[in-house]
Write a structure and sequence with these properties.
The protein is mainly beta. It has a single domain, classed as Jelly Rolls (Sandwich), CATH 2.60.120.580. It has three helices and 19 strands. The strands form three sheets. Strands 3, 5, 6, 7, 8, 13, 15, 16, 17, 18 and 19 form an eleven-stranded antiparallel β-sheet that branches. Strands 2-4-14-9-12-11 form a six-stranded mixed β-sheet, with no helix packed on it. Strands 1-10 form a two-stranded antiparallel sheet. Strand 6 and strand 7 form a beta hairpin.
Length: about 290
C-alpha cells in the first residue's frame, strides 16, 4: 500500500502490457473504522497523510515518459461491510452537522443495507487511480494530471482509463474503492470499503495526453481538477474539444458547438476536504 504517488517509490511488481492484474484494496481509513465509535479516534489522529491507501505501485514493462497507459476496468468486487462518515470540514454543509459520525453499512445482493428500512443499490467505483508524477510527490488524497483521487463515478467496470506516463514503468496504483458515491462527493466520501479490482493494462507508445480521460462503450469522457468548479469545467471542455477535433477531423469551433449541444458536465468532487481541488468530468457520446 502507498499513500503518495512518487517516482521514488519502488514497484511491488512488474507486468507486461496486455496483462490482467487483480488488486486487493483497503478502505480509505486503512481499516480503522470497524464500528461507529471508531470514528472518534480516527477524527483525533494527528497524521493527515494516511488516507486513501492505494495498491501498488505496479511497473508496466516498456512504459516510458511520453507514453500513455490504457487501464481497462474489468471487475470491481466489494466487501460485505463498509462505512459512511461525517467529519468536521469534510463536506459542503458539515458546519451544520454534529460531527464526527459514522454508520456501518452492510452490502448484500448488490444492495447497501443502512437499516431495516433503508436499502439502496450499490454502484461500485474507483476513487483513486494514477501514476507517478515526473518530479513532485502527490498524496493519494489529491487529484492531478497524473490521475490520483479523481472521485469520478465513471471510473467503473467497462471504462478504459487513459493515464499519461511520466517515469519509466509508469508506477500505477489503485485504491479508494466505494460501494457507492453520489456525484459531487458532497460529504467528502461515499461508502468506503475494501475491494478487489481486476484491470487490464495496455500501453500506447509515443502518445501522451496532458490529463487523464476515459472511454466507455458509448462515450468519451475528459477529466479535470482545479481550485474552482468553473476552472475545472473549462479545462475538461478544452480537452474534449481537442479530442473531438482529432477524432472527428473537424475545427475546434465545430467541436465546441457539438460539446455545447451534446456534452454533459458532471461534478466528481466539490466538498473542499483538506484543500482538495474540485473535480469534474465531461461526457460526450461516441459518434
Amino acid at each position: 500500500m502507498i499513500y503518495c504517488f512518487s517516482k521514488d517509490v519502488p514497484p511491488v511488481v512488474e507486468v507486461d502490457p496486455g496483462e490482467n492484474i487483480v488488486l486487493e484494496t483497503l478502505d480509505a481509513a486503512s481499516g480503522r473504522i470497524k464500528k461507529p465509535t471508531d470514528v472518534y479516534a480516527y477524527a483525533r489522529r494527528k497524521r493527515l497523510d494516511d488516507v486513501n491507501p492505494s495498491t501498488g505501485p505496479i511497473a508496466v514493462k516498456g512504459a516510458e515518459a511520453g507514453d500513455t497507459l490504457a487501464v481497462e476496468i474489468l471487475d470491481i468486487k466489494v466487501a460485505s461491510r463498509g462505512y459512511r462518515v461525517l467529519m468536521e470540514n469534510a463536506g459542503i454543509i458539515t458546519q451544520e452537522m454534529a460531527t464526527p459520525r459514522a454508520l456501518i453499512v452492510k452490502i448484500e445482493d448488490c444492495m447497501a443495507i443502512y437499516d431495516e428500512r433503508i436499502k439502496l443499490p450499490i454502484r461500485p467505483m474507483i476513487g483513486t487511480i494514477g501514476v507517478a508524477p515526473a518530479e513532485e510527490v502527490v498524496s493519494t488524497l489529491y487529484p492531478g494530471p497524473h490521475g490520483g483521487n479523481m472521485d469520478n463515478n465513471d471510473v467503473t467496470v467497462g471504462a478504459r482509463v487513459y493515464l499519461p506516463v511520466y517515469v519509466p514503468g509508469a508506477l500505477l496504483a489503485i485504491g479508494d474503492v466505494h460501494a457507492s458515491m453520489g456525484d459531487g462527493e458532497l460529504t467528502g466520501g461515499g461508502i468506503d470499503i475494501d475491494g478487489e479490482v481486476t484491470v487490464k493494462v495496455d500501453l500506447i507508445k509515443g502518445r501522451m495526453w496532458p490529463r487523464p480521460w476515459l472511454e466507455t462503450k458509448d462515450s468519451w469522457i475528459t477529466c479535470a481538477n482545479a481550485p474552482t468548479l468553473e476552472d475545472a469545467i473549462a479545462i475538461a471542455t478544452r480537452d474534449m474539444v481537442n479530442i473531438l477535433t482529432e477524432k472527428l477531423e473537424i475545427s475546434k469551433e465545430y467541436a465546441f458547438m457539438l460539446v455545447g449541444s451534446h456534452g454533459d458536465a458532471k461534478i466528481g468532487q466539490a466538498a473542499k476536504y483538506k484543500g482538495l481541488d474540485a473535480t469534474v468530468r465531461l461526457v460526450f457520446p461516441k459518434i
